[in-house]
Design goal:
The structure is a homodimer of 228-residue chains.
Chain A lengths: L3 E4 L8 H18 L6 H15 L6 H10 L4 H18 L6 H10 L3 E6 L3 H11 L7 E4 H4 L6 H11 L6 E5 L2 H10 L3 E5 L13 E3 L4 H11 L3
Parallel strand pairs in A: 1-2, 1-4, 2-3, 4-5, 5-6
Helix pairs in contact in A: 1-4, 2-3
Family (chains A, B): Belongs to the HAD-like hydrolase superfamily.
Keywords (chains A, B): Hydrolase, Magnesium, Metal-binding
Function (chains A, B): Catalyzes the dephosphorylation of D,L-glyceraldehyde 3-phosphate in vitro.
Chain lengths: 228, 228
Amino acid sequence: MIKGILFDLDDTLYNSSEFVSIARREAVKSMIDAGLNVSLDEAMEILNKIIKDKGSNYGKHFDDLVKSVLGRYDPMIIATGIITYHNVKVALLRPYPNTIKTLIELKKMSLKLGVLTDGLTIKQWEKLIRLGIHTFFDEVITSEEFGLGKPHLEFFKYGLKRFGLKGEEVIYVGDRIDRDIEPAKKVGMITVRILRGKYKDMEGKADYTIKDLWELIEIVKKLREGGQ
Amino acid sequence: MIKGILFDLDDTLYNSSEFVSIARREAVKSMIDAGLNVSLDEAMEILNKIIKDKGSNYGKHFDDLVKSVLGRYDPMIIATGIITYHNVKVALLRPYPNTIKTLIELKKMSLKLGVLTDGLTIKQWEKLIRLGIHTFFDEVITSEEFGLGKPHLEFFKYGLKRFGLKGEEVIYVGDRIDRDIEPAKKVGMITVRILRGKYKDMEGKADYTIKDLWELIEIVKKLREGGQ
C-alpha cells in the first residue's frame, strides 16, 4: 500500500535548469554593464568553469569571475551581479505547471509527502517557500542536514526512516536516472521519472515515466487498486 | 580649498535605523506566523540581545533566535525570516530626501565624493547600488576592506590617502559624534553632523550641524568663498 511520496526538488518541482541559466546570464550581463571588461560568451565560459571546479554551493563564484577577468577584487561589480541574480530569482521562481494541483490531490489521498534533495538546507527551504509549496510537505530532508547526499543509499534510507515507512510503501519522483531513480530503486521504492530539465534525455528506466506531475495521480490510483 | 567630501552611509545617506527596525520586526512576525511559538515583544528582546552579543554582521541571528525559543534548529522558520527581511530591504531601501539632488549638485561643483563606512564590503556596496547612488562616489571604503573601522584615526587617514587630499581639503559628513565627527576632526577634516537616526540627540559638536543634506551646498559655497 502506497503511503508516501518523496520528491526531488530541482528540475522535478520547478524548472531549476532554466532559472539558473537565466539568472547567471543576466547577472553576468549586469556585471559587464558595470565594468567587467569581457564578452558575455567568454565570461560565461569562465563562470561555468568556476562552478564546475568549486561546486554550485561555493558562494564566491562572482568574486572569482571578477578576479579572473580584471586581476583584482571589485566589490561594486560583484555586488551588482549578486543583486541581479537575486532579482531574477524572486521574479522567476515558480513551480512547474500542475505541481500545486497535484500536491493538493495527493494530500486528499492521505499520502505523506516529502522532499529529499541535495543542497544547503536554508537555500532549499528558501526555494520551497518562494515556490509557495513548503506547507504541503511533512518532511524536507537535505544532504547538508544528513551529511551525505545523492546517490548514497543511506540518504534514501534516511528518507524512509523519517517517513517511518518501508521502501515498497513509498514512491520516489525525480528527474535524474543516476542520482534519483537508481538509488531509490535500490532501497526498494517505486520510482517515477519526470522528463524535465537538462537530464531528460539521459538513458535509463524507472518503474514509471511521466511528462507532467499530474500523471502521478493515476499511478497512485492504479497501484492502490492493484493492492499496492 | 575644499576638494572632497567623505560620507558615512548608514543613517547619513538613508534611514538605516528605521529600515533595520522594520525589517527585523516584520521578519520576526513572519517567523511567529510560521510557528515560532513566542510573543512578538519577547522575540524582539531575544533577537536584540543576540545582535548586541554577536554584532550586526554575525549572519546567524535568526538561527540563534529559533534555537533559543524552540530549543532546536528549524530551517523553515529561519528561511521564512530571511525571505521577509530581504523583501523588506528591497521594498524600503531608499535615500533620505534631497540626497540624490545634493550629490548631483556637489558633482557639478567638481568635488570628489566618497563613502567611508563600517561594515562588510559587499553588503555596503549592495546598499549603495540598491539606493541608486553608487555611481556618484569616486571612492567607497569599508572597515572590512581596510581591516580597521571607526573610530580609529587610521581609517579616516586612509580615506584621505585614497582621495590624495589633506584633512583641511575634505569635509566629513556623518550622524554620530563619537564614531564620525570626533575622529574626522582629529585628522583635520571639516566636520558636518547630520541630525538623523537614533543618535541625533547625542551630545557633542561638529563644525556644522544640518538637518537635511541639501544644507551641505551652502556650507561648501561659504567655505570656498572664505578661501577654504
